[in-house]
Amino acid sequence: MFPLLSHRNHSNMATCIAIIGKDNTPLYLAISDMDKELDLQYRVHAALDVIEEKCSSSTKMNIESKELYLGLLYSTDNQKIYGYITNTKVKFIVVVDSGNVALKESEIRTMFRNLHILYTDAICNPLFSPGEPITSKKFDKCVRNILERQ
Predict the structure, then answer these.
(1) Looking at the domain assignment, is residue 102 inside a domain?
(2) Rounded to an integer, what distance in angstroms lies between the CA atom of residue 23 and that of residue 91?
(3) Does residue 2 lie within any of the structural domains?
(4) 65-76, pLDDT tens digit by residue?
(5) What is the pLDDT of residue 58?
(6) What is the mean pLDDT of residues 73-87?
(7) Which residue range forms the structural domain that includes residue 48?
């Protein structure tokens, strides 16, 4: 379902980073704990519904927002799911551990900005085919550094 690249088990604040194409096709998924892979994929899919709802309600009200950061989409007992959408409707979803009270909103925003920059660099590669899964090892390494650093 999702293209998975290398994975490691670390104690991370962010447990999952997903990039979803404008037509809701999965482009990239990084998971820090493979024991939770199915649960995290479910969380990402559920987040897509919330993103669609947020985006459609803002267009219904004719609000043209420059804000790409969607904020907290929803939370569970164990996780908080945040969203970000680019101008081209590519969606970034980050799942963090609910127990991580030290993670601030500004750090989440910074994480999304960094992901957006990495994504832009990856798709500007002339060998990249738009809409295809991102399989670049350099991109994967950089995203996993964000996962581990946060």
Answers:
(1) yes
(2) 10
(3) no
(4) 567 899 999 998
(5) 60
(6) 93
(7) 14-149
pLDDT tens-digit profile of 100-146? Answer: 777 788 889 999 999 999 999 999 988 888 889 999 999 999 999 98
| Per-residue model confidence (pLDDT) at position 128 | 87
Secondary structure (DSSP) of 82-103: EEEE-TT--EEEEEEETT-TT-
Does 8 fall in a domain? no
Evaluated on CA atoms 32, 27, 90, 37, the torsion sign reads negative
Q: Is 36 exposed, middle or buried (0-12, 13-18, 19+ CB in 10 A)?
A: middle
The residue to which tokens 């920059």 are assigned? 117
What is the pLDDT, as a whole number, of residue 74? Answer: 94
> Is 144 domain-assigned?
yes
Q: Whole-prediction pTM value?
A: 0.85
Give the whole-angstrom CA distance, residue 146 versus residue 148. 5
Tell me the residue type at 138.
K
- Residue 68's identity, in one-letter code, is L
